[in-house]
Structures are given as structure tokens and as C-alpha cells.
Amino acid sequence: MDKKDREKWSPGGKTMVKVFLVEDEAIIRHGIRDNIDWASHGFEFAGEAGDGEYAYPLILKAQPDILVTDIKMPFMDGLELSRLVKKALPRTRIIVLSGYNEFEYAKEAIKIGISDYLLKPVSSAGLIDALKKAADEIREERENSRLLERYFVSYEKYTEFLDKTDYSGVDRKLINDFLKLGSVEECSPFVEEYFAAIGEHNYKSLLLRQYMTMDIFYCVQEFLKKLKAEPPEVPESVVDIKRVPKVIESVEMTKAYLIEEFTAALQARDRASNDRYGSVIRDAKEYIRANFSQSDLSLNRIAVHIGVSPSYFSSIFKQETGQSFVEYLTQVRMERACELLKCTSYRTSEIGEQVGYNDSHYFSSAFKKAMGQSPKEYKASQTRQE
Predict the structure, then answer these.
(1) Is 262 exposed, middle or buried (0-12, 13-18, 19+ CB in 10 A)?
(2) How far, CA to CA in Å, does 385 sit from each of 164, 267, 308, 341, 368?
(3) Residue 351 pLDDT > 90, yes or no?
(4) 192 in a structural domain
(5) Total of domains in the chain
(6) Phi first, then psi: what are they for 188, rounded to 5°?
(7) Domain presence at residue 150
(8) 75 and 36, same structural domain?
(9) pLDDT number for residue 58
(10) How far apart are CA 175 and CA 56, in angstroms?
(11) For residue 236, is it within any domain?
(12) Strand pairing partners for 97?
């Protein structure tokens, strides 16, 4: 009997979700057991126990999808039971029942990895809502597992298919290179060129489109994972594996889906790059403005300070600001020099030293090149304006 045959189905056509109940107060336990129409809500009541110690071997035997447990119980409390169950059956969802004065226990249970906790007294409606929420997550996980199982189990058919064609499979290097270096505007042309390279006689095969799309889907997901990009930063549809069987029904649907996947990935990449570049540039500018008076301030020194290579820093600084490092440093120094010339009686040599020039002649030359007049002429013009 295979896995599908073993699964029980609810009246609504969904697979039944098994629930095990652990509660030391018999009245509460029997009330929960008897007052809920388990089957009509898509559940199978898999068993019950009055304490954790007695419950644990029964849980291992029943292997429930959801464990509902009280926290304070004799012999073995709900926390210890939850730890053991999570270790033995990591996919089992756990819902904790907690009294008001046991909130610290509930917080500890959350650390263990419970799905939800409910405060006593628990109404049937409240418990059913929590169970349905957990059941929806379980069913989604099962559906994803089935898709993956179908994808990998039939891989042998795919390799047999490839042996009969001139298509060698998804070029992961090409895909990854495009994800790293491509632009959003190039997504549609890239997909069209990729299909053209595969050949119409190949991509018309539903089997090939299935595996090609799944392979590219996983390339994109791995790329997004490295970027730490997930909903809401990227659309839910981009990370939803359940869409794949639907989008491969036609060639045009497959192309549109892949364009959507690539576009979302590159937009996430660009946002991450902008955030990263922005942080580097802000740090660099702050460091320059704090240290421009030091004559030995250099590109290498700033690169070391912000933790990037000098060539990388030079490239992104120019790219993001439109100025070279030297141009920006000179601008900052000249702005300060103008303030000092206008508002103080310092000599030109003294002002030069305060803005990072030990050589007064070099300062005067740099100032004239930047401002169109010498420091002396600038000071005189500012005096006349006053």
C-alpha cells in the first residue's frame, strides 16, 4: 500500500490531519475530545493521555500531525514532552494549553518551537481555529512535498528523454551568470534566446518544460536565498512552487513565468546592491568629512576603514556619486577653505594646513583650479560683498 492509499480523506476532499491530546484534567480532556466533531473539520482524533510520560510512547506510535498539550502536568510536563516530540517528530505541530499564571511556561514553549498557545479556559471554537491554522500549514507542506517527489521520482524519465534529444539540460552557469550580471530589461530577450537555443522541437515537450522550469525555479530560489530576499521583498508568487505545474501548460505561459521569476530576482538583487552601495558611500563620506584636514587621507585608507578593496571602493564611489574620490575630497576641502577665508583672519598657509594641505603653494594652486580664483582674490571678493 503506497503513501497515497494510507492517507485518510475528509468529507471536503482534503487529507485528514491527525490530532493527539494530552491534558491531565480529565474533565477538560474529555470535553475537548467529545465536543468537537473532528471528522467534519478535517481531523482524525488519534489518541489522548493524562500526562507527558504516558503520552510520549503513544505519540511515537500514532505519529500525529498536531499535538495539543497542557503545560503543567504530573510526571512529565508539557514543556519536556514538547522537546521530546520536536526531536523525534520535527514536523509535528504543537499547540499548548496554558493557564493565565503559566505565561512564563508558554514563552519557554515558544522557544522550543510550538505553533501556537491558547489560554485556558479554551473554547471549542478557539481550539478549532488554531487547529485549522496548523492544518493549513501541514497540507501546504504536504502539497509541496508531493511536487518535489514527483519532480525527483520521475527524473529517470527526464534523463531518458534527454538521451533522445540534442538538449543537454539547464545551463546553470548561464542562468547564474545572468542573475548576477543581467538587467531587468534583458529578462524577456534572455528567455526568448534561451528557448531559441533549446530548439522548438525540444521545448514543445511538456516533460522538458517541467524540468527546465523546476531547475530554473531552484536557481532563482538559491539566488534569492543568498540575497536574503523573501516576501514581502519579493512577490509570494515568485517563491510559490505550486505554480509550476500550471505555468508549463503552454510554451507562452512558461516563458511569461520565467520572465516574471528573473525580473523579480534581478529587482531584488538591484535593491540589495543599492542598499549595500548606499551604506558604503555614506560611511565613506562621513569618514572623509571627519578627516579631510589630515594631509595623509587617501583612497586606500578609506577603503580599509569601510572594509572593501581600494579598486572596488573607487569604482562604486564614482558610480554612485558621479565624482572620483579625489574630486569629492577636494570639494569638501575647498568648501571648508571658503568658510575659513570668509569668516576668519587666518593666513592662506594656515587655512591650507587646516584643510589638509601642508604646502601653501600647492593649496593656492588647488584652490584656484577649483574656484577660479586664488585664495587671496576669493577673500577680497567676499569682503567687498559684505
Answers:
(1) buried
(2) 86, 51, 45, 13, 19
(3) yes
(4) yes
(5) 3
(6) -65, -50
(7) no
(8) yes
(9) 95
(10) 48
(11) yes
(12) 70, 118
